[in-house]
Amino acid sequence: MIVDAHLDIAWNAISAGRGFLGEPAPGYVVSRSSLARGGVGLVFATLYTAPARARRAMRTRFVYENAHEAGLMATAEVNYYRTCDLPLIGDRKQLERYVRGWRRGRLAAVLLMEGADPVESPAQLGAWVDRGVRIIGPAWGRTRYSGGTHAPGGLTALGVQLLSAMRRKKLILDISHMADRAVADAFELWRGPIMSSHSNARDLVSGDRQIPNATAAEIARRGGVLGISFYEHHLRPSGHANLDDIVRHAVHLARAAGGAEHVGLGSDLDGGFDAKHSAMQDTKQFTDLSRKLRKQFSASQVEGVMGTNWLAFLERSLPG
């Protein structure tokens, strides 16, 4: 089973009309049928909401001006997932049953909130847990909770409260998009499961969107997994990336983390970019990626990167 730790399925459907059922929209990669053909069995499906101040590439008519609007938008995305015949995995028992009975063509999801602004107050976090959220990344750009991509800064006072509430609710922390200072704050405060859903190696591609070796090592030390984004400019400074660039980042992150068991996929396919800007233009290329990874890793390590590392992480990290 292939596991992809970052897909903006609902946002693509609601903001841009690229529905998940049927075939992918022209020029795009992801749909229910394409994932099934590629052998994907589990995805981390996001609740992403775009702030009105977002740069043009992520601006649509579906943007929020305040936390209440963000919450309404994320609620619409939860409802969309529930129309897609996409079971939501919420605990270890559900995960175990699903994995044990999985066969090619089946697909389930774990809900990941990317940017925590839809949580109007940490006191309301329980409502999002009830809706199925199991992973939260506090930042995208700057949020009320954290500094983020191109928005330096640490956790805010509200962000500290959010992490405390997340720990009580047994949620997973995703540091992707968090600013360096916010990541450092989180390392000081957070004692729960931690991961990076879709951030590549800063040594290979510079910028605050990527993670440095020390961050990769600390996430690994805490038992976390590092997901690799397929966006071309996350893989190669000049863009024009291909599958070999995914392998290059996998090798680098495995070394930084102390082992391939801490590396997985977090493609972000179709998440604000189309197939022209992706290292993968068709999900059938997952087979090619696996073959290329085999030149650098053992068979069991490749199986881990393609999916079982994320499954093991969820087995450790989801509530019982």
Short recap of the structure:
The chain is α/β, with parallel strands linked by helices and 320 residues long. The chain has helices spanning 9-16, 32-38, 67-82, 92-101, 125-131, 157-168, 180-189, 213-221, 232-235, 243-257, 286-293, 299-317, and strands at residues 2-7, 40-48, 50-51, 63-64, 108-114, 133-137, 146-148, 151-155, 172-174, 194-195, 226-228, 263-265.
What can you tell me about this protein's structure?
There is one protein chain. By secondary structure, the chain is of the alpha/beta class. The chain has a single domain, classed as Metal-dependent hydrolases (TIM Barrel, Alpha-Beta Barrel). Helix content is 39%, strand content 16%. It has helices at residues 9-16, 32-38, 67-82, 92-101, 125-131, 157-168, 180-189, 213-221, 232-235, 243-257, 286-293, 299-317, and strands at 2-7, 40-48, 50-51, 63-64, 108-114, 133-137, 146-148, 151-155, 172-174, 194-195, 226-228, 263-265. The chain has a 6-stranded parallel sheet with strand order 1-2-5-6-9-10, with helices on both faces. A two-stranded parallel sheet has the order 3-4. A two-stranded antiparallel ribbon has the order 7-8. Strand 9 (172-174), helix 7 and strand 10 form a beta-alpha-beta unit. 52% of the residues are buried.
